[in-house]
């Protein structure tokens, strides 16, 4: 692992990343591409935990959930993350990766229930661990789940995959002159009101001194370049 910046990481993937060009559902070509990126860093000997969102599935039924009790809607979202996690695990197995799904909600027929010690043992054995079901509680986002699981497993960084290649001074779609921050401190991000993660997740990472790197999942080789210490994405540090 000479030259590798991190030994253990937590990758935060949005559900929308699996939808590709579509608005909802899972695009097989996109999920295979994401798995290919993960395989690149797994081959380096990096231990990988993944937290997956469920927006690609839940937003497809969101109009029907209008007016629904918030807790019930959040549990629906957690179930969507489990569906995505199982799809991701299947694609990883086809790619030759050994993967385990651990859910914060107990569904023993389809995946393991989250147990911290078991998750760490899987990582030490070279397995990719996919954390599903969010935190297991309503009113918390999968960003918060990523910060929580990253802290629990002793990850050295949270890699947040987005549609843009970092944090910018302004929305680059609306402001072409906007520039990317290479690095930011947590305090700078707060002072400039930059939306790196949701407030709860950001506060947890800050308190636990867990750095965050924001990068584009659509840039080939981006994760590997981050691990090699190259200029990729935006590094948020304490």
Characterize the structure shown.
- The protein is of the alpha/beta class and 238 residues long.
- The chain has one domain (8-237): Carbamate kinase.
- Helices cover 37% and strands 17% of the residues.
- The protein is built from 9 helices and 9 strands.
- The protein has helices at 16-19, 28-42, 55-58, 70-94, 116-124, 142-152, 186-191, 199-207, 222-227, and strands spanning 8-13, 47-52, 99-103, 112-113, 128-132, 158-162, 183-185, 212-216, 234-237.
- Strands 4-3-5-2-1-6-8-9-7 form a 9-stranded mixed β-sheet, with helices on both faces.
- Helix 2 (28-42) packs across helix 4 and helix 6 runs parallel beside helix 8.
- It is globular.
- The two termini are 25 Å apart.
């Amino acid at each position: 692992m000479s030259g590798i910046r991190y030994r253990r990481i937590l990758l935060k993937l949005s559900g929308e990343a699996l939808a590709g060009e579509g608005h909802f559902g899972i695009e097989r070509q996109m999920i295979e591409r994401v798995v290919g990126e993960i395989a690149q860093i797994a081959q380096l000997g990096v231990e990988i935990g993944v937290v997956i969102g469920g927006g690609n599935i839940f937003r497809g039924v969101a109009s029907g959930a209008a007016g629904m009790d918030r807790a019930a809607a959040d549990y629906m979202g957690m179930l969507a993350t489990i569906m995505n996690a199982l799809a991701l695990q299947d694609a990883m197995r086809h790619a030759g990766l050994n993967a385990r799904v651990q859910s914060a909600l107990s569904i023993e027929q389809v995946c393991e229930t989250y147990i911290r010690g078991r998750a760490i043992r899987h990582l030490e054995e070279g397995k990719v661990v996919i954390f599903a079901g969010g935190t297991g509680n309503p009113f918390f986002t999968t960003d918060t789940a990523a910060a929580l699981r990253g802290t629990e497993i002793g990850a050295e960084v949270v890699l947040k995959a987005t549609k843009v290649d970092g944090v910018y001074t302004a929305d680059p779609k609306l402001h072409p002159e906007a520039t990317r921050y290479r690095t930011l401190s947590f305090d700078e991000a707060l002072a400039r009101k930059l939306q790196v993660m949701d407030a709860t997740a950001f506060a947890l990472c800050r308190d636990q001194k867990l750095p965050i790197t924001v990068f584009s999942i659509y840039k080939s080789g981006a994760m590997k370049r981050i691990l090699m210490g190259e200029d990729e994405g935006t590094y948020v540090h304490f």
